[in-house]
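Predict both folds.
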Amino acid sequence: MKASKILVIFILMACSVIGSNAQNPNTKRVAIKVGADLGLTKGMSTSSLLDFQTDKTSTKSFGLDFGYKFWAKKSMSFDVNIGVGYKMIDNKLGIENVDYSYEASPDADVDHNSYDRYNAVAEINQTIDTRSLAVPIYLSYNIRCAKWLSFHLDAGAQINYIMSSTITNSTAEIDTYGVFSEYDDLMIDADWLDNFGHRSVNTVSNSEAAVNNLNCSLLLGGGFEIRLAKPLWLDLGVRYNEGFSNLFQNQYSRNSIYSSENAPITYTVEDGEVVKPLTRYLTKSKLSGLSLRAALVFRF
């Protein structure tokens, strides 16, 4: 795992300088950290009921952390930290070349006849923007190497409260025809009836993706601080998150995804084509990834 290798490197670098560069412990107890995180890897671990051809997640966040040094001895110390931040998660999901059929209900026909509706989906692409309030709680193990340099390793958890998850873009291409059993299995693909034929669809029935409002993740990290000028330090490092719970709510089972209610694109005369949020087909959607972190630290 890339994150584990990076943390090992930080540990080895820190341990190598303990003996020869021991300093008096930092007497500054309080730290205020203003920083930002930028995702370096895919920010979510996913699995789904559909075969996604596009499955991308990017993350970024900024926030304010407060730290207190509760133990110090020679060049080593421990800080306890809590923060609050604003996290942005952007998902791009897409499927291609999906064929399915279902028994359409009478509200899917202008004459209220039941029939079998056949769909050939060329593609569906969606962009989902999720915004959350992030609260990291973690311990930092610090090693002071020089008056101007120190290393730290972090471990804790991060709680995310989802404030919104909006489908900002949704496009689809579909070819449809109907087979009417009461007319000796007559096949109709005329575009003047029940929206058969080829269609481009650019709307969704619900602009909000269904989410679990609270989720928690393991937080690991490491980095180094460089003193710029008293009491200001520059903190550069990495953070790794591994989610414990799913971000998006899975709302279907594998046996029910191709029905008149649950298929990726459904139709009624009143509503026309409705493209379902692709997040509903995710069986796993846990935040997971490595981020680059940069912060200004004020120590008092």
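Second protein follows, with its predicted structure tokens after the sequence.
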Amino acid sequence: MSFSIFFCGCKQSNLSTDFLTAKLHKINENEESRKENLFFTFVSNPNKTKHPTMKTIQVSDKKFQLYLSAEQIATRINEMANTLRQQLKQVENPLFVGMLSGSFVFVADFMRAYGKPAEIQFVKCSSYQGTQSSGTLKEELGLGDIDLKGRTVIVLEDIIETGLTMQSFVEKLKEKEPNNILVVALFYKPQLNKSNVEPQHVGFSIPDDFIVGFGLDYNQQGRNLPDVYSVISE
């Protein structure tokens, strides 16, 4: 924001040049601070557009009920991103790795809320069929020849259950000698964890309910739902 001050038809001014300069510097500082706050407010609220929230839905052959609204999820992602931004304030160009396919919505919203310069890559390691995890890692898309030595790597995952997929992936990452590896999960089922991996940042710790929406699927359906739903037991 710029300001112009004109003195028309005045023989003298009671305002000194130094005083005016100081006031303009103060205005510019406040404006820069306001812009920064507006930026983080904008990127931290990706779900501003209101949408009708359905209490129950049908996905494929199963019925689901509302578990978390898009607004609740956006608020929690904003909190997580703020925490990590403070934790990594001395880290230059951290590498964020999204675990496809389920994390793509989470990664997009999280990175907008994070708001600082960073590199983003995706990998695809599958272990699901239907509603069950097989526990066997199948890497379909990897990091290739990206040099991770000495870097800070943050793995973004939509949901961690047994943790076996994440454990295998973290072990592969360690072979590339990064300085630090952090695991961030939007959803975590701690009672099912069979691995030695504990996520450092968790959005929601949940019971053993099968959920769909916000990137999570049931037989490849439901990923585009803005809210999260849990399956209704028959």
